[in-house]
Amino acid sequence: MNIAILSIGDEILRGIIDNKNASYIANKLFMNGFNTKTIISISDNLDEIVETLNQLSKSHEIIISTGGLGPTPDDKTIEAIAKWSEVPLVENNKAKQLIKNHYKKRNVQITQMRKKMFLIPETSELLPNSVGAAPGIKITKGNTTLFALPGVPQEAQAILDEAVLPWIIQNYSPVIWTTALTFRNIRESELATYIESKINDFDLLTVAYLPSFGYVRILFSANKDYTNDNSFNQFLNDLIFKYQEFFVYKSIEKPEQYLHKLMLNTGTTLCTIESCTGGIVASKIVSNAGSSEYFRGSLICYSNEIKEKILKVPKDILTTKGAVSEETVKYMAENGKNLFNTDYSIAISGIAGPTGATPNKPVGLVHFAISTPSNIYCYKFVFHGNREINIESAANTALLLLIQHIEFFKINFIKN
Known about the structure:
Blueprint: E1 3-8, H1 10-13, H2 20-31, E2 38-42, H3 46-56, E3 62-66, H4 77-85, E4 89-91, H5 93-105, E5 119-121, E6 125-127, E7 136-141, E8 144-149, H6 153-171, E9 177-184, H7 188-196, E10 205-212, E11 215-222, H8 230-242, E12 247-249, H9 255-266, E13 270-274, H10 280-286, E14 295-300, H11 304-309, H12 315-320, H13 326-340, E15 344-350, E16 365-371, E17 376-382, H14 387-415
Parallel strand pairs: 1-2, 1-3, 3-8, 13-14, 13-15
Antiparallel strand pairs: 4-5, 6-7, 7-8, 9-11, 9-12, 10-11, 15-16, 16-17
């Protein structure tokens, strides 16, 4: 079964916006066991859309398009689909009602231009949009099923998750098996050296190295199931043991996603005390719906005055050791945890750059302190990037260190 992703929009070809939809859809398909064969971006041109659909339908059983479903004159996708499928556009009562309800809730008038969204190809099935106005559609021509989704990422992702993926999973069998490991603060080349020396022992297995700032994810995939393969499981255990200091979890999820599930499962609470990251760690945490169940809040203590007055960092510590020091982050973490009354706190203070370095404290130096229910743990890293990279690396590292400590505490708590 071949799948194509078709991104429609002049704004994508001109580089005005990132093509987030294609990467999200391809990743979701892959994580559910399906490969994407083709990804294409084209303009909002009626004839080009029709011709592209004609070409893709010759070699793909599923096409997922995004963009061009809105009410403006440059939105040509619905018209093009009707032309491709050789059926007329008709006013759909369900679409009409959904769109009217959407605008009514927002006290927005239904203009003549917006009524354009009432029209869909006659033989198509409506895919409700739980986030925005324009519904998606599903239509079949010959052996090809086309899903047309809005271009707004939140809307496209919602319809994909709620309607498209469930349909694909129900009608097709996954062809890919995957598992993943996440490591922090280690170069992918070091991991690759060990992995590549062992991987040839396993047929049909491929490895993808997915580096991010502060961590790397190793994705193993195959056209066969290795879940119960003793040799492969021993290989994974050996890999984790060899790099146990850097290993964090078995998942492809981003740190904030994994931490979210971990916090909910453990029923513990958390706060962040941030200096050089300026709230980025907290922002990552609250990107998950439901984070209010465990996240009490964040304090951005950028100045020494705030560190001293609110977090009670002794003035002599700030004077003699400096804001970027183990001693300072220890006070930040412990007093911050007491301030927010949480089980865990993470404190970060560093020199993001390009200025602020001293002979003993280079740009990229970041100190971390994690206050757990039983102790305080301190770490120091030097990141080697520009300001943006150093901040992102520090934020991700903070989350990953926290995960390691919560997992460790959970295991030992259960044992005791």
